[in-house]
Amino acid sequence: MAGPQAAGAENAFAADLFEPLPARYDMLAELLSFGQNRRWRLELVGHITATSPRTVLDVATGTAGIAIEIATRSRADVTGVDISKPMLQRGRERVHASGLDSRVTLEVGRAEALRFPDESFDAVSFTYLLRYVADPAATMKELARVLRPGGAMASLDFFVPRDVAWRAAWRAYTRLALPAMGFALGGRPWWRVGTFLGPNIEAHYSRWPLERIKEAWSEAGMVDVHARPMSLGGGVVMWGTKA
Q1: What is the pTM of this model?
Q2: Contact indicator for 67, 109 with CB cutoff of 8 Å
């Protein structure tokens, strides 16, 4: 079990970025992604529920969207962790409204230092996470540590289209339209997110190309690792099994 560690600058930045968003997060995430966010989430959830897990850890759970979907589509008990207390509070409201209080538990936690013993969960999911940690490879090892051998892991994040024309369109959207739409629909906090996302996503993949991320999964003990770019490359779902 990992010992306690101090939160890094990346954690602090992510917590500050998301703190004002929870009230309208789920609605605006769908609007600003033209409904693709839900498609990506259901792809991730499918890889988790296909293994019929009894216990699932959902890391960077936010407002518990993935946790709720997993619990709804399986018999698993789900533990969600996130560094943002406001996001978790909104998540608890959504869990209660879904009638899943007995099967979905949410708590404050950091992906880099999970409080759970080794091999605690049948499956692990995480979303929009690796761009906000100092060391993605070390974080992958920590996520794999709490997964039992033979268990499934799946993740979702934004991606950069590989096709030149679609990449140009993606850049125009993330640099111009997304900040403007975010401001119009959600005010200054969403404008801030809109101006941050595009450059952050590209910078992440310049440092951590998809093949390097797959290697980090493998180095963490995951096998049969796959990555599926979705929506013309705007998102990517990854999955694998612990050896």
Answers
A1: 0.88
A2: no
**Which of 204-213's residues contact partners 24+ apart within 8 Å by CB, and which partners?**
204/130, 204/131, 205/159, 205/160, 208/130, 208/136, 210/159, 210/236, 213/130, 213/136, 213/238
Whole-number pLDDT of residue 195: 86
Residue ranges covered by each domain of the chain: 9-158+209-242
Q: Could you tell me if 236 and 159 are in contact, meaning their C-beta atoms sit under 8 angstroms apart?
A: yes
Positions of the chain with pLDDT under 50: 1-6
- Fold classification of 9-158+209-242 (topology level): Rossmann fold (3.40.50)
pLDDT at 1: 34
Q: Any idea of the CA torsion for 84, 87, 92, 95, to the nearest 10 degrees?
A: -130
Structure tokens at 178: 């997304």
DSSP for the chain reads -PPP----HHHHHHHHHHTT-GGGHHHHHHHHTTTHHHHHHHHHHHHHHTT--SEEEEET-TTTHHHHHHHHTSS-EEEEEES-HHHHHHHHHHHHHTT-TTTEEEEE--TTS--SPTT-EEEEEEES-GGGSS-HHHHHHHHHHTEEEEEEEEEEEE---SSHHHHHHHHHIIIIIHHHHHHHHH-HHHHHHHHHHHHHHHHHHHHS-HHHHHHHHHHTTEEEEEEEEEGGGTEEEEEEEE-
Residue type, 199: P
pLDDT of residue 3: 35
